[in-house]
Amino acid sequence: MSFGDRFLTDPTQFPSSTNGTPWGNERLIVDFVGGPYLITGLSLSQAELLRDHFEESCTTATTEQMGRVHIQICQDSDKSFKDISKTPREITFDLDHQKNHLNISGLYVMARLDFQPALSATLWTCKNDDSLFSGIIFENIFRMVVTYRLHEDNGMLIHSGAVVDDGEAVLFPGRSNDGKSTLSKLSLQTGRTVLSDDMNALTWENGVPILEKVPFAGDLGRTWTRSSQYPLKGIFAISKTAETILEPMAAPQAVALLVASTPYLNTDSMRMADLLANLHQLAMTVPTGRLGFTKNEDFWPEIQQYLKQ
Amino acid sequence: MTNTETEYRMAPDIRFRRVLDEAVVVKQDNNQVIVINEVSASILDIFEEQETVTAEVLVNALNEAYDVDRPTLEKDIQSHLEELQTAEIITSVTGHK
User: Do residues A194 and A217 lie in contact, with contact meaning Cβ atoms separated by under 8 Å?
Assistant: First the structure.
């Protein structure tokens, strides 16, 4: 199938520019790592849905306020989109990677990310007062926007659990069903802070990798407060085992795991070289290992011992 | 079965990076990520420099790097080429996989 075939009634009508009719005049700022992100063109309903969805990270923007990234929301007719009566269990998108922009089509949405002169996004949807707008349409496009924003500074979003131990963060990359949520819940029981059990932001500060929470929900839900930034002290692949096992993981295997856990960028052939370079740097900067964990044992003493070596 | 004159090229969806002695290979067509060993990584380095490569070119290029006799190196490289072909990281120029 070609780009747009799954979601659009006529993919040839995909917008060739960023022009569009806004849904309304509402403006919001979502402020967290890489931002602030300015969202304009929202209807009253859409703005309310996003405020509910992003909670404390989302505030009304004045007409003077600017964002580091601008996302504009435009109307499109429901006739532009195929009618998909049942929301699929797994949300996927058609992506068309170009040198200076990225075209996206998905469930009742078309979007375009422009990388020049500065990162910006335009989103066309037929959904106004439907919770699909905030929970699926906007959040998923927004994740891609944040991904590319972080990439500008050699950072990335990583499918991962992240737990704070003694003031520093430990990262557990992995895809669905790898055990991130289970490990995160077990870590909460030891009194530790969990940044997220699903998606965490990695940035760099003076050569030190830093982890920060993002307002995207995982299985533990979304309790949003902008978190402190935590320096990263270790990366562990995880699996559920009969007893606790902790063994080294070489840098090549760590890079492979991180590539597989870095959404959107890992399908972008134009930026793959940069992504590999950034992940190589990351794997050479902090200790990496493989953790097999069980629900019945506290694995944190083993992690702490491993990281002291 | 390959021979020393068969020409190969890297598959167009392949991206890779050397990490220590190995290499991380990403197959963009199906999002598969593979770690390959040092010899295969050295082979891919040569593919980056030349559009098509034969086994003979690889043996000549790697002869000094590996302290083995030439027949052993030829056999080893043929084996690695077959593995890379099976993994669809390289293809023969005639299009056979």
Answer: no
Task: Give yes or no for B87 touching A (CB within 8 A).
Answer: no
Domain that includes residue B18, residue range: 7-89
Residue A187: domain span:
156-308
Put simply, whether B29 touches A (Cβ < 8 Å) is no
Q: Buried b vs exposed e over B85-94: b needs ≥16 C-beta within 10 Å?
A: bebebbbeee
A18-48 pLDDT, tens digit per residue, is: 889 999 999 999 998 999 999 999 999 999 9
Q: Is residue B47 part of a domain?
A: yes
Mean confidence (pLDDT) of chain A: 93
Q: Is B35 on the interface with A (CB under 8 A)?
A: yes
Residue A2: inside a domain: no
Same domain, A160 and A147: no
- Looking at the structure of chain B, the number of domains it has is 1
Name the residue among B15, B19, B35 with its Cβ closest to that of A272: B15
Is residue B6 within 8 Å of B25, Cβ to Cβ?
A: no
Instruction: Provide the whole-model pTM.
Output: 0.93
How many angstroms away from the CA of A265 is the closest CA of chain B? 11
Chain B nearest C-alpha distance from A11 (Å) = 22
In this prediction the ipTM stands at 0.91
